[in-house]
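Here is one chain, start to finish.
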Amino acid sequence: MRILYVAEIVGKAGIYAFKKGLPGLKQQKPFDFVIACADGATGGNGLGKGHGIYLRKLGAQVLTTGECCFYKRDLVDHIEKMPYVLRPANLNPEAPGLGSRIFKAGNGKIGVAVLLGQRGFLRLHGNNPFSALPVLLERLRQETPFIIVDFHAEATAEKRALFAIAEGRCSGVIGSHNRVQTADETVLGRGTAVITDAGRTGAAESVGGGDIATRIQEYLTGIPNWTKDAWGKPELQGVLIDIAEDGKARSIERIRYPVPDMVNPEAQAGETAEEKDDN
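Its structure:
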């Protein structure tokens, strides 16, 4: 089984890069299943209901989130009806939505889960992911050996430590949140593919997917501002994981797939009525 994990989709440029890049990438590097991190798809922070529906139509079979999972109220109200959208599994049980699920993938099944790290997040806090992971994987392994975990965390050390606990227990653990692709992709000795951060899908010329000048001003003033999108050199980033029949990863490949720049970005962003409702 070949799994494409699309790195965090950030803003309109990210949606555009996913829309334009996915068909061409599939021709070059065929895959069986698509997992996409969408924690910043709507305005760079959070996922709105309309964008979730739209990304699903474009080809994402699972949408993962992170600390921004409940930033958009319309997703909070509808996440129970959108089982392809996963919030972190280590939130309190009262939180709406699912943190893991078994999905159909070709002739088989794949388990996908999200965990949230404990360092650096101010607005949302999860329970201990190191305690949650073994129980979560044991439950998913009862149904399928193919399991991918999205670990949405700030600290590199926390990610690497979780990779070590996960080794041999799942097919892959993909680090997300930092929006900068790391060059440490590897398959650990017992068949678990890992990377500290898969990167971001959106503007390569940006600060975390945001407009450069606006983000500089934010650091100068201390006033958060995600109102302006970056559009320079859009590309689809992520990783492609090849998994053997026993659920062990055979390889992991970093993906950076550029898509054409836009003459009129706002007009060509591929917005639908559903998307506009979220902006």
